[in-house]
Amino acid sequence: MAENENTLTWFAQLAVAPPQRAPRLTGDKITLPQSALEQLLAAAPLQAVPNSSNARVQHSDTFDPFNPHTFAAESRARQQIEQRQQQLPHPLTFRIVNPENGRFVYAGIREFSAPENEVALSSLLRESLEISDDDFTTPETQESEEVPDMEVDGVEGNGHQTPTPPTIPTTSTPAGPRVTVHAKQLPKGTYVRLRPLEAGYDPEDWKALLERHLRDNFTTLTVGEILTVPTSRTESFRFLLDKVYPEGEGICVVDTDLEVDIVALSEEQARETLQKRLERAARAPGTTAGSSVGGVLTLGENVAAQVLPGENVDYELRELTKHEGTLRIELLTDDPTVSLFASPLSARQRGRPRRDMHVWGDFSAEGSKKFKIRPTNIALEGAESIYISAYAEIEDTEDESSQRVPVKYNLRISIDDSEDGAEAEAEDDEHEPDDVQCQNCRRWVPQRTLVLHENFCLRNNIFCPQCHNVFQKRSPEWQNHWHCPHDSSHGTDAASKIHHDSIFHNNYECTDCSSNFEGLPALALHRTNECPGKLIMCQFCHLIVPQKGDSDPDFFDPEVLVSGLTPHELVDGGRTTECHLCGKIIRLRDMNTHLRHHDLERLSRPAPRTCLNQNCGRTLSNTGNKSLGLCNICFGPLYVDTHDPEGKALRRRIERRYLSQMMTGCGKAWCQNEYCKNGKQKRQSAPEAATMSVAEIMKVTRPLVDALNVKPEETNTAPFYFCTDETGQHRRNLADMIYAEGTTGDGDKAYDMAWCVAGAEAAGGDLEKTREWLAKWAPSRGETVR
C-alpha cells in the first residue's frame, strides 16, 4: 500500500490522431488532451511538506498556540497546503498499447494540446505500434462514447478484474485506430546496447551524433524497437535496441549518464563492416584514391586536386578586403561531370555550396568552369569569406569501380578586370583584306581558293543553324548532335543530353520545405533565398537557425518586408532588454534605432564648461564663480564679503596668492603646479632652481594677473594656475593623459580637454570608467551630426 501511494496510476483509451495533425512530433513524443492533464494532476501522489519549513510558516490569519481553536485552525490550514503539494513525476512517461495486435511502446509527453479523446503519435511510435496511414482512410463510427471493459496490457495480474479506463468527455468520437495510454514511470537508464541493421557503421563517429539525437528527440527507449538516426538530410542509419540496464521493457534517458555500446548483429555483418571501413579509409580525403583535402586559398594560387564522384572538395577564400577588382574563379578539367560552386559566408548565408544550394555555380559540360564575382555584388554584403566547392557527378554506369575513380582538376583564383568576349570578338574579326567567307562553314578563306573550298565543304561538312557549329556529315558527333527545346544548350552525345536534362529539367524536391522545382539551379536559388529552412546567423540570439519557423510570420508579411529582417529575426527581435545607456526597456529589433537617438544626442551635446584653473579637474557646477570661471574649491580661498564693483581687491588677492605659492609653496605632496615652489621642485631636477626673488616672481605673475577680467558683470577667459586639492589634481592629470592619447595617433579617439575633464569627474578618477564614459556620452574631435 505504501508503494502504491507514491505511484502515479492513470490510463485511458484514446483515438490516434491522423498523421497530418502530428507533423511536428519526432522521436517518442506524443500529445494528449487538456483533460488528460487534469486527470493526471488529480491522480498525482502527495508530496509531504518538510516539518522544519512548515513550522516557520503561519497559514491561518489569527494563530495563537495557547488557544485550542486557533491551533486547530492552523492544523487544518497546513493539511490543506499539504494536499495541494501534488506534483507529477519528471519526466512524465507513458506506455502505449495497441489492443489490436498487443504491441506496446514507451513514449514521452510533448504537450497537452491534442483534441479531446485523441492522442497524437510521432511516426516512429505509429510504426512501432504497426499503425499505418491506411488505417485512417475509412472513418469508424461508434454509437456510444463509453469504452468497453477490456484487459489492460501491462497491469500486474493478481487475480482481480482489471478496471475500466476512464472516458474523457467529448462531443464527437474521432475515427481511426485506438490505443490505450498508461502513465508508467521508467527507471533511469545506465546502459544500452545497439545493434546496427546495416553494415558499414563506424562506432567512433556515432558518439556525438547519438547523444544529440537522443537529447533532442527521446525521453524513453523501448527494448526491441528500431532507432533511426539521421546522418544527413537524405541519409539515416538504423539500430536495434537490443538490451538496456536496468533490465526491463524500457528505460528513461533524461537526466542520466547513459553508456552506449554498438555491437555487430552477426559475424558476417562485422566482417562486411570492417571491409567497408577499410575501403572508406583507403578513399579518405588526402589519399591517392580519395578526394583532395581542400582548405584555405589565396589570390593567384593555382591548385591541382582531385575529387571522387559524388563528393565535394571545399575551399575557403578569406582575402575579400584586399582587392577591389572582379574576382575570377576558374576550374579546368577534362571531365564534363565536374561542377564548380561558390557561396559567401555571411549572416544570411551559412551553408557550404552544394549542387542544390549555392549562390554562384557552373554546371556546363565544357572543360572550363568559371564565373566572375564583382565587388559590387549584393551577395557579398557583410561576407566574411567565400566558400568554393568542386563536385563530381555520379555517372549512371553498371561498372561500380569506374564510379570510384577520382577526377583531376585545376582550380585558379585571380583578379580580372577584362570584359568577357572582347578577345574572342577580336579574333573573329581578324582576316586578310582579300578573304571571303564561306556560306557553308562561315570560315574566311582566300578568294582564289573559294571555289575549291566550297565544293569540298558542301560535300563533307554540314552547318548547324542553331549553334553555328560545323560537323562532318558522317561523323558520330553530327549523328548524336542535339539541342535542348527549352534553352540554348546543345551537345554531341547522348550522355551529355542525359546530364543536361538531369541538372536543368528534372524535378527536385527541397529537403527543407518539400517544394518542387525544375532543375538544380532553380532549387539552389530557392534554398539560398526564400526557403524557410535556410540557415542564418540570427543577429539577436546569435545562433545558427532556420530563417522561418513554424510559428513565424510569412515572408510576405508587411512587417517582415518593411523591417528587412527574416521571419525568425522579427519574432526573436520582439524580446526586450534594458538599454545600457539610459536603462529603458527596448525591443531588440528597435535597439539600433534607439542607440542612434543616443548617438544623435551625444553629438548634439554642448561641451561642458570646466574650471579655468589649469590644475583642477572639475566642471563648473551651480556653486563657484562662473563669471571668473573657477569652481567652488578653487574660488573658496579668494572669497571675501566686501563690496568690490571694479574687482581691484580681487585682483590684489589673486596676485598675493601667486606670490605666496611661488615664495613659500603650498606644502602639498601631490602638487604639480609649475607656479608653485613645491610643484616646481618636483618638475625640475635641482630643487634650488625653484627659488626665485620677489622681482623675478613679479615679472612672471604680472602678465597672468593683467590678462584676467575680474569685473563681476563680464566673463573671464584667461587661465589660472592655483594649487588645488588632491582629488582635483588627480582628475586633471587623468584628463591630460587621455587628451594626449588622442593626439599621438595610437588609435584612440581624440576628445577635447573639456570632455576629458568631465569624464574624469563623472568616473570619480577611474581610468577605465573614464574611457567608457567618453565612449558613451562625449563626441570625439571632428565628429559631427549627420
TrEMBL record:
GO terms for cellular component: VCP-NPL4-UFD1 AAA ATPase complex
One Pfam family named in its UniProt record: AZUL
Domain of life assignment: Eukaryota
GO terms classed as biological process: ERAD pathway; ubiquitin-dependent protein catabolic process
An MF annotation (GO) of this entry: polyubiquitin modification-dependent protein binding
Signal peptide: none
Domain Ubiquitin fusion degradation protein UFD1 N-terminal subdomain, residue spans: 188-263
Region described as Disordered: 157-178, 416-435
Residue ranges of every copy of the Ubiquitin-protein ligase E3A N-terminal zinc-binding domain listed in the record: 656-694
Chain ranges of the DUF7590 domain: 290-416
InterPro entries: AZUL, AZUL_sf, DUF7590, Ufd1-like, Ufd1-like_Nn, UFD1_N2
PANTHER family per record: FUSION DEGRADATION PROTEIN (UFD1), PUTATIVE (AFU_ORTHOLOGUE AFUA_4G04640)-RELATED, UBIQUITIN FUSION DEGRADATON PROTEIN 1
Protein name: Ubiquitin-protein ligase E3A N-terminal zinc-binding domain-containing protein
Species of provenance: Penicillium cosmopolitanum
